[in-house]
Amino acid sequence: MKNYNLYQVDVFTKNKFEGNPAGVVTNADGLSEHQMQQVARELNNSETAFICKSEKYNADMRVRFFTPTTEVPICGHATIGAQYAYAVEHDLDSQTIQQETQIGILPVEIIKEEDDYKIIMTQGEVSVEEPLKEAYVVSILKALKLNKNDLIPEAPIAIASTGHSKVMIGISSNNTLNHLQPNFELLKEISKEINCNGFHVFTVNLGNDPLIHGRVFAPISGINEDPVTGNANGPLGAYLVKYNLVTTNGSSLEFNAVQGEAMNRTGKMGVHVDIENGAPVKVQITGTANIAFRTKIEL
């Protein structure tokens, strides 16, 4: 038996019970994969992160991510939450942590500000695909109970990824966004067909801050709706650049994204995209967090 340090961290907000809750175990060595899955199921957050020792010479730690039903390769909000809890637990100064994940070793910057932290996560390899075939578009619109008039005309429905892909669906109305009631079973079937785990429905509010309002649905991963999603808003930044939907300075794009409003768990993150020759090449997200509770669990 061993005592494990267990946290619930509300990410992308400084207010308790807002943003996206992540479970975190900061000393997970000794837990089996089955036990990790059990802990994630018990906490029932969209993801729980488990910090372990890494066997890679160039990594400071290994982090594994579990939804209530399955392990996933990477998670944005749970990375922010894990590194925030770890920084608080160890009273870290500003530094960069090399985090081993299933998609590779990624740098995570811990920025100490007075007695608190913000976390900058560099995401994985950037990929923005060509628009989905019309048959898939029709199915997605049916599942989301939208029609083509709801879409942003210049924004094709396409998959984007920085390690954990999402379908990008731009619509023109925040009111429509906040009243979506998807058919989750149909979204599951579409996910299987296109090999993509989630759907990011968003609006682009040019001239306003935040630029983006969004909702993310990932029922294939056991998450009907995720409150605030780093692995959706990060690749969305790359998508916006790829399809020239916003003005950039030629070398980068920065914006804020808000999510979770329809769930009363509003959170905000910063997104930064590096651009070379008109193409997105690197994505970072920045977020704050707060610890809702911490305890120990004996297993």
From TrEMBL:
The active site is at E47. One of its GO terms (molecular function) is isomerase activity. Keywords: Isomerase. The keyword Isomerase applies. GO terms for cellular component: cytoplasm. It comes from the Bacteria. Pfam families: PhzC-PhzF. InterPro entries: Phenazine_PhzF-like. Belongs to the PhzF family. PANTHER family: BIOSYNTHESIS PROTEIN, PUTATIVE-RELATED (PTHR13774:SF39), PHENAZINE BIOSYNTHESIS PROTEIN (PTHR13774). NCBIfam families: PhzF_family (TIGR00654), PRK10281.1 (NF007625). This is Putative epimerase.
